[in-house]
Amino acid sequence: MAGRVEGKVAFITGAARGQGRSHAVRLAEEGADIIAVDICEQIESNPYPLATEQDLAETAELVKGLGRRIVTVKADVRDRAQLKSALDEGLATLGHLDIVVANAGILPMAMGDPQAFDFIDAVDVDLVGVMNAVAVSIPHLGKFGSVVLTGSTAALLPGATDNPAMGPGSAGYGWSKKTLMGYSEQLALHLAPEFIRVNVIHPTNVDTHLLHNDGLYSTFRPDLEHPTREDVEPAFTMFQAMPIPYVEPVDISNAVLYFASDESRYVTGQQLRVDAGSLLKVPGGPQSM
Q: Where would one find the signal peptide in this protein (predicted)?
């Protein structure tokens, strides 16, 4: 069924590449116009390169190639004023807002000498950044507006993001993603009278830069000095119940599309795992409830 979000406008953070770009393209394929923001700068504690302005421009070209409108703005989710200005710029062109996808995130896992400030950076982006995106958006959402937050299945797994070997930044990532669960449920409850729904998607490993970097490779294969993608894929595969190393960004985007569309108009406060069964492998996991 084409045109599932025809005529809607989506505000997407972390849209320059990875999952955010995929969400922008998938929603555009189904008729949405896009307000896309990304920091397009490096955060010092994050050991892998973040997106660039060129990446954001490429997202814009992909959306335009689908015949949809897009406004791109360089903005830091940690700064609520920047986000408000970015959204205002988009609204001035596109006129209204229907969908919020708070996707921007970092995983500043330990490499070299981990610092306590890594925890703060992770929380500022992965939790405060989400709250900032929601705060500036809610005044513009009308009936059956949709807020979609990016969680993490890894954060739900004991010994994953809270592994001491991963450092304070990973702990901050995991704590932030877990905190989003309660935050989203409270938000969904209080926005329900306005017919605005709030849901969280918890991906497993996704084929993006957050997964494919030297820091995470070394964590999964500490026995090798310079592990490659080929070296770590068997270890990544052990993470899921289905025998795959990771899902593709579009697999998460398809879930975003469902939550963004009117097909889910009465679905709110949900925690959806797109995890190839990874949490099912945990002793005492949901299969034992």
A: none
